[in-house]
């Protein structure tokens, strides 16, 4: 088999899923070189087993580039997981200084760097997918009182049921929504508008009711390939209560739909993304869009599809579900991305249910936790021997310290059940969650019958 050296810029379970997908290649002899935010035990093991190297670089672009330069003669390509290095030009730096092709958009086309830019592009190419919105730039106002006055004027015209979003990325955690995070104009201004305005531009937009779904699009810069839709669970607690998080779980259902979606939702989602993609290509982008240039977060009310936001990489957790469903060899997909001849990707019609186990203080579940953070997954891996590929275990924000595995401060482990029926996939995911020996917690309602039925009822389906 042909030898392939791959550099993975890694953070969390999303990157662990990439590592797993690459190592499963039946067409290539893969060596994995991993630039990691922490000493992820799974990544360390896989780098060693494949004859590659693991380096704790953090997400600092300088450190990533230094590592890439040391191993450049071993590399065929690089792929980037987390958004920060993409926004901070890791692709440009690695390509310029090592001559290694990188699968990630350039920083210029990392649309998630600015929600304002996203809204402006959508206003041009797909205005019906935009909610009503207004941008507040602190540089346009002499003081905060002037900005507040302008906000109050806009609210009097469009109503107070709005969402408040900072322009720059916050993994969904800087977003405040009427009825969920505030219930009065005073709270909106004091707790969300003013704090966000201190850091830069703020978007205030109408609150859109409906059911959310995401579609990630993979591109070689010329073609745009949709992947199966995913439902993500952002809120910390069951029944979608609590603050937004990076994502507590997710599920997939069929290659082109979720239980609450219809054909029009899928069609509109593809059309909106295609229009954005074509707009970027009109601006001169081509190979600069290589990777996952559009990870589209949508919401449907049964009649219309609106765009909530646009990201520029695999979602976490959504990308994990997607890689599990991918039928084609992921190494081959990446090579086609680089060559510019990726015209299709085949996916399995499997149900996948992902549940995250998270630290005690995550999502504000506890104010503090001062106990031992040791994590023992031995019983989970014993269970995997029974379920084999029907159970996937992805180690996320874990670190190997003095031969012990310790939980960090973010999401710790993703447990994914894979089956022909969504109820069975959920059962496998939760069985594995229960086998974790660690001070971690999780949501229990990801892909539950009750939640799915509620989603269908919410939009009259």
Describe what this molecule looks like in 3D.
34% of the residues lie in helices and 25% in strands. With 461 residues, the protein is an alpha+beta fold. It has four domains: 2-104, Rossmann fold, CATH 3.40.50; 132-206, ATP-grasp fold, A domain (Dna Ligase, domain 1, 2-Layer Sandwich), CATH 3.30.1490; 209-339, 2-Layer Sandwich (D-amino Acid Aminotransferase, Chain A, domain 1), CATH 3.30.470.20; 351-458, Alpha-Beta Complex (Glycinamide Ribonucleotide Synthetase, Chain A, domain 4), CATH 3.90.600. The radius of gyration is 22 Å and the shape is globular. The mean pLDDT is 96.
Could you name the CATH topology of the largest domain? D-amino Acid Aminotransferase, Chain A, domain 1
End-to-end span in angstroms?
A: 50 Å
Low-confidence stretches: none
Tally of DSSP β-strands? 23
Question: Which class of the largest domain in CATH terms?
Answer: Alpha Beta
Alpha carbon gyration radius: 22 Å
Annotated CATH architecture of the largest domain: 2-Layer Sandwich
Q: How many individual domains?
A: 4
Overall shape: globular
Query: Largest sheet, if any?
Result: 6 strands, antiparallel
Report the β-strand fraction as a percent range: 25-35%
Q: Structural class, from helix and strand content?
A: alpha+beta
Within CATH, the superfamily of the largest domain carries the name ATP-grasp fold, B domain
């Amino acid at each position: 088999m042909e030898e392939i050296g791959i550099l993975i810029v890694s953070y969390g379970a999303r990157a662990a899923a990439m590592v797993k997908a690459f190592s499963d290649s039946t067409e290539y002899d893969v060596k994995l070189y991993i630039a990691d935010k922490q000493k992820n035990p799974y990544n360390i093991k896989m780098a060693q087993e494949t004859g590659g190297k693991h380096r704790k670089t953090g997400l600092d672009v300088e450190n990533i580039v230094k590592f890439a330069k040391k191993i450049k003669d071993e590399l065929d390509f690089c792929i980037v997981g987390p958004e920060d290095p993409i926004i901070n030009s890791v692709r440009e730096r690695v390509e310029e200084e090592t001559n290694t092709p990188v699968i990630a958009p350039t920083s210029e086309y990392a649309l998630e760097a600015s929600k304002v830019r996203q809204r402006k592009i959508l206003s041009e190419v797909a205005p019906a997918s935009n909610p009503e919105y207004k941008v507040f730039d602190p540089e346009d106002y002499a003081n905060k009182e002037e900005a507040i006055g302008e906000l109050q004027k806009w609210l009097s015209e469009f109503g107070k049921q709005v969402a408040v979003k900072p322009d720059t990325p916050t993994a969904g955690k800087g977003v405040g929504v009427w009825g969920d995070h505030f219930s009065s104009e005073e709270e909106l201004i004091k707790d969300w508008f003013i704090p966000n305005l201190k850091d830069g531009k703020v978007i205030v937009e109408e609150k859109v009711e409906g059911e959310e779904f995401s579609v990630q699009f993979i591109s070689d810069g010329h073609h745009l390939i949709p992947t199966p839709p995913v439902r993500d669970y952002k809120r910390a607690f069951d029944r979608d209560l609590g603050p937004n998080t990076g994502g507590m779980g997710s599920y997939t259902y069929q290659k082109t739909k979720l239980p609450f979606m219809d054909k029009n939702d899928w069609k509109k989602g593809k059309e909106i993304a295609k229009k954005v993609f074509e707009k970027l290509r009109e601006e001169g982008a081509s190979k600069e869009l290589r990777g996952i240039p559009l990870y589209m977060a949508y919401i449907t009310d049964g009649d219309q599809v609106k765009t909530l936001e646009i990201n520029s990489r695999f979602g976490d957790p959504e990308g994990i579900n997607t890689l599990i469903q991918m039928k084609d060899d992921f190494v081959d997909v990446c090579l086609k991305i680089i060559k510019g001849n990726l015209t299709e990707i085949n996916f399995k019609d499997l149900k996948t249910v992902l549940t995250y186990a998270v630290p005690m203080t995550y999502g504000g579940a506890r104010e503090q936790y001062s106990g031992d953070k040791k994590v023992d997954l031995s019983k989970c891996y014993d269970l995997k021997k029974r379920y084999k590929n029907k159970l996937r275990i992805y180690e996320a924000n874990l670190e190997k310290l003095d031969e012990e595995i310790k939980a960090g401060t973010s999401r710790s482990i993703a447990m994914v059940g894979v089956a022909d029926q969504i109820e069975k996939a959920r059962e496998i995911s939760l069985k594995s969650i229960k086998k974790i020996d660690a001070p971690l917690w999780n949501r229990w309602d990801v892909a539950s019958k009750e939640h799915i039925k509620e989603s269908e009822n919410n939009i009259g389906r």
